[in-house]
Write a structure and sequence with these properties.
CATH architecture: Alpha-Beta Barrel
Order of helices and strands: EHEHEHEHH
Number of helices: 5
Largest sheet: 4 strands, parallel
Mean pLDDT: 94
CATH class: Alpha Beta
CATH superfamily: Metal-dependent hydrolases
Strand order of the largest sheet: 1-2-3-4
């Protein structure tokens, strides 16, 4: 099957990257879900053909690393997520997360990039459609 993978690594960035690099490129690589690495690592995954999914933590005041990633990686390689029911974005932090809250994440990305919410929503939706063959 030539289906994209969804990878969630937790405190194993270098190991996951090493494994994926050894696997090489496929037509549909996948997405690094709930990305928590730095800008350099994000670009490394993108160079392998993966999308980077930005979670609701980007809305947290002290989340400087994920904010940096969201501000600079190509919008064409970005997805937006909630990680529901966990990691609710501000102002819902500490409460049960739900898919409808993805808007908070997309709005924060737009603010960080100084572009419109609509631009983020349209491009990241297109990215998801392309990755998962929804068009």
């Amino acid at each position: 099957l030539d289906l994209p993978v969804i990878i969630h690594d937790r405190e194993a960035h270098d190991r996951v990257f090493s494994i994926l690099r050894k696997m090489g490129k496929r037509e549909k690589q996948g997405v690094i879900h709930c990305f928590s690495g730095d800008v350099e690592l994000a670009h490394s995954f993108i160079d392998l053909g993966y999308y980077i999914s930005i979670p609701g933590t980007v809305t947290y005041k002290k989340a400087s690393v994920v904010k940096d990633v969201a501000a600079v990686i190509p919008l064409e390689r970005m997805l937006v997520e909630t990680d529901a029911p966990f990691l609710a974005p501000a102002p819902r932090r500490g409460k049960r997360n739900e898919p409808a809250f993805v808007e908070y994440t997309a709005r924060e990305i737009a603010k960080l990039r100084n572009i419109s919410f609509e631009e983020v929503a349209i491009q990241t939706s297109k990215n998801a459609e392309d990755l998962f063959g929804l068009t």
